[in-house]
Amino acid sequence: MSKLTHEQLIKFPKIELHRHLEGCFYPPVLFYLAKKNKLDFPSDYTAFVKELQFPQDSAPDFHLFLSKFINSWYKSLDDVADVVYGSVSHIDTGDNLAYLELRFNPYHYAARNNFEVTDTLKVVLQAAQAAAAKLPFKVRYLLTFNRMQFKDNEMLEIFKKFEKYNNLDEIVGIDLAGDEVNFPPELFPNFFDYVHQAGYKATIHAGEVSSAAQIWTAIDTLHAGRIGHGVRCIDDERLQEVMKERNIALEQCLVSNYQTNAWADYASHPLRKLFDKGLPVTLNSDDPTVQGKTLNDDYILASEKLNFTREEFIKLNLNAIEASFLPADEKAELKVKYLNDCE
Predict the structure, then answer these.
(1) Which residue from 144, 258, 294, 334 could staple onto 175, CB 3.0 to 4.6 Å apart?
(2) Residue ranges of the domains in the chain?
(3) Assessment of whether the complete model's pTM goes beyond 0.85
């Protein structure tokens, strides 16, 4: 089995299921808006970018990581459109993506200015689709709901408003994110019952900074088809067997898991052990701008620290295709194209 060089890893085709739009904003667009809207940020571009990112010399710190998700950029819906269009336009920064499921939280853009959240949904989707149409790979979207912002029935009412918007065709699933510890998944059964009945698949952030018990709840109560991060799955062998049997994928992110202190080091990250046990694990970037790292960095770490080979990287990406929320015919088409790209 062959190891890949750094250059080969960069050129290697990749499928990504776990990337937040709000974590991969294009810094030049933010710099322009900071000046335009007279925001309190450094006027020097290098210093500005440094302020956007998790400090590279910092010890892991979950709250410091979250503090980098800033939502003060927007004074109008045009500002929202500018950020989204500019960021999606530049999303392929050498990662060689073949398919991306990009998640976004409409309320992130609405919160500080009291924009109507359905208006931000429309603006974000229109801008993102206009930009994605020019990219050399397919992009689909997940709607993120932050468990710290709304209660169960409030999420349900917001989602029903979204359903009245006539163009949700590019939305392939629903994501639950935010503070796992103080807002556990069992608080949101009605919303995810409705989502499931409406035909949407769900991915739940669970077992990142909480126990494996939350992964069980995400699966049994919220109908999770995938688990965001889920590193604590390594603590529960029965859970591993259930996830393997039900083909519930783990969206794992090496750089992010270290910076947030979800996992203490790269060499012992559970990605390797879970992969070897046959679980459908996938490799993702999470928040490239915040992290100051790209998806390529996650691949390099997986190669150097966890000894993944070319054949194993192909398997990781086939896992991701199978775990994607695409219809079966589009998955089959993507698989053929992906394997051809790997030749």
Answers:
(1) 144
(2) 6-342
(3) yes
